[in-house]
Design a protein that fits this description.
Helix content: 25-40%
Strand order of the largest sheet: 1-2
Number of helices: 1
Strand content: 15-25%
Order of helices and strands: EHE
Amino acid sequence: MIVTAHLGDTHLDGEQRSADRTRAVMDYLNAMPYDLDAVVATGDVADHGLPC
């Protein structure tokens, strides 16, 4: 079985809210009972295209 995770529109902007939201998703993925074969990130990764 191939297992993938799709992360879309994370809108990372350097704020604590987006960091907490992203951490919650990563904690969920890390707690899965099997390993991921791939993580695909699409959409708006950053909010304004500025360094975080």
